[in-house]
Structure formats: C-alpha cells, structure tokens
Amino acid sequence: MSLKDTHLSLWKQALGSVPDNIWDRTGLRTLVLADNDLAELSPRVGRLQQLAMLDLGHNRLRQIPSELGDIQGLSDFLYLHDNELTALPDTLGALKHLRYLNISENRFGTLPDCVTAMTGLIELRATDNALTTLPHSIAALTRLRELHLRNNRLTALPEEIGLLAELRQIDLRGNPLTALPEALLHMPRLEKLDLRWVATLVHPAWLAELEARGCAVYL
Fold it and tell me: pTM for this structure?
C-alpha cells in the first residue's frame, strides 16, 4: 500500500463538509481535515479503523459522533482544538492507546469523563476553555507527562494530581488559582510548573523546596 493510500491531508481546502468518498478509504493511517469550516462529522468516520492520527482542528464542530470511539487503534494524535465543543461522547473513552489529545480552544466547562478514561495519554492539551475544576479521576492518567491547562477558570487542583508519577510539565498560566496541593512537591518527575499570569495565588513556601529539587517554577 502506497503512502498516498495511507496518508491524506485536506488541510485548509474550504471543504465545508467532508466528501463521502473519504469514508471509503479504510486503509488511511493519517487524515487531516483541519481548517475546513466543518460544522459536522459523519458517523462513517468509525469505518476508518486503521487511523493512527486524526486532525479536526480549526473547524466549527459542536459535537463529535460516538462512532469515533470505534477506532480503538487511534494511537498517535487526535486534534479537536479550536472548535465549538461543550462535550464529548463517552465512547471516546475506548481510545485507550491514544497518546496525544488536544481539546484546547473549545467551550468545555468540565473535563469530559471520556478523557480520563484514555489511560494511554502522554500529553493532554485543554487550554483556553472554561474549566472550573479537574475531576478526581484525573488520577487514572498514570502515563501522562504533559498537562496543559492555560487560560481556564481553575481555582484549585485536586490532591489526586499528585498520583501522576510520570508528569513532567504542568501549565497553569492565566488561571484564577487560590491554592495549590502540596502533593505537587512530591511528584518525582516534575520538571516544570508554570504559574505565570496567576495574580490570585499566595505562593506556598514549599515552592522554593520544589525549585531546589530541580523543578523550574515560573511565577
């Protein structure tokens, strides 16, 4: 099978809708549909069982079909950023092998339950939403190395964040934080904690100890 048969980029083609024949290309490994003014996605996307990467960023999607969760081999990247999403179907929790998820620049008020069911995630980007809390189930993301939460409405983090033993980076810029869990101090691999543009937080004394341990703390 040729590269042309397995990789398709339709980036910024002003499509408006996805051509029906795309859903017949069941050998695709990567599919880029970014920046096409898409308002909906066909349930037929679930037919693309070989996909490892799907880019739906920079569109106008308000919902994602539950059939996307049927692509359980989706392992590399799922880009859903810069859409109009407020929720995700629970079926996406079946994407256990997915390593990178970007749901930034949407309208999420809470982190969808399916996200913390994606236990293979290594990087999660949920910047520029309206998140007010993180669920306790965030502890299930035991492989997570990067957590990007810039420009949300978080005032605190759950203690369970300390259970993410692989976490290297946490970006909390631009959140109205009033407290941080001391569990951050005991995260064995934390290398970067970004707290810039957070004017509401009284910096806990243990931040100095975290820095002394080798973690870069940006204030």
Answer: 0.97
In a domain, 209, yes or no: no
Q: For residue range 60-112, list pLDDT tens digits in order.
A: 999 999 999 999 999 999 999 999 999 999 999 999 999 999 999 999 999 99
DSSP label at 7? Answer: E
Can you read off the two tokens belonging to residue 110?
């809470």
Helix (H) or strand (E) holding 68: none
Residue 41 CA to its chain's centroid (Å)? 19
N-terminal to C-terminal alpha carbon distance within the chain: 51
**Cα distance between residue 28 and residue 167, in whole Å:** 32
CA 193, chain centre distance (Å): 18
* Beta carbons of 85 and 106 less than 8 angstroms apart: yes
- What's phi and psi for 6, nearest 5 deg? -110, -15
Q: How many domains does the chain have?
A: 1
pLDDT digits (tens, 9 = 90+) for 42-67: 999 999 999 999 999 999 999 999 99
Side by side, the strands of the sheet bearing 123-125 are 7-9, 30-32, 53-55, 77-79, 100-102, 123-125, 146-148, 169-171, 192-194, 216-218
Residue pair 73/49 in contact (Cβ under 8 Å)? The answer is: yes
Query: Token pair of 102, please?
Result: 């970007």
Pairing assessment for the beta strands 169-171 and 192-194 based on DSSP bridges: parallel
- Is 195 part of any domain? no
Q: Is the dihedral of CA 49, 55, 57, 59 positive or negative?
A: negative
Quick check: is 147 in a domain?
Answer: no
